[in-house]
């Protein structure tokens, strides 16, 4: 397992497979590199290099007390890109990982990036403000955090089926649901709270408007974790010239339940 060190001395784990033009996969909140097991073999076989990151507090990476704000997490991603000297990258971000990709572009530019895919991304801005009346109230963010502190396993367990929208007939076995739950609970509890809070407060609207590289936005209509009206559709309206695809039976876990469709859509993006 290779590691690299960030500016504050945190050691982060990553995985690196294949050769060819690189695709950097940025995982969901509370999940790590392992979530991309349905993407990596496909893209390696297509002749691409797949690089996967365990963000701080997740997977096999260090669990520091700080650095969970969106800017530091975007800088962590940039450090990985520079560590491997990656160029002509396709960045693929899922859920909160989409926010990290968006903030990376703001802070580090598009010089090394050729394409972007936002998958079930928690964008553009969740918090309700005077200029963002579609957002959710602050008390919702803090109420969820209070539930984490009281019974984090129960919170995740109650949402495990909805994550994959199994009520719509999606192929997510009990074993897959259990595995996803265990992976979420393996994330540092402190990181779970801090990344949640940071994601809720991050405003990506200006940055999304400034994207100039080809961009794919994919979202599930039945996503219970990132409601499509608040996230995917609004993101698609902000990113100039993006391709927007909505999966009618898709929940939040498209990477598993709709892996074939998602892989082909990302492949179309990568091929340009």
Automatic annotation (TrEMBL):
Coiled coil: none annotated. Gene3D superfamilies: alpha/beta hydrolase. GO terms for molecular function: hydrolase activity. This is Alpha/beta fold hydrolase. Transmembrane segments: none annotated. InterPro entries: AB_hydrolase_1, AB_hydrolase_fold, AB_hydrolase_sf. Keywords: Hydrolase. It holds the Pfam family Abhydrolase_1. The keyword Cytoplasm does not apply. The keyword Hydrolase applies. Residues 21-258 form the AB hydrolase-1 domain. It comes from the Bacteria.
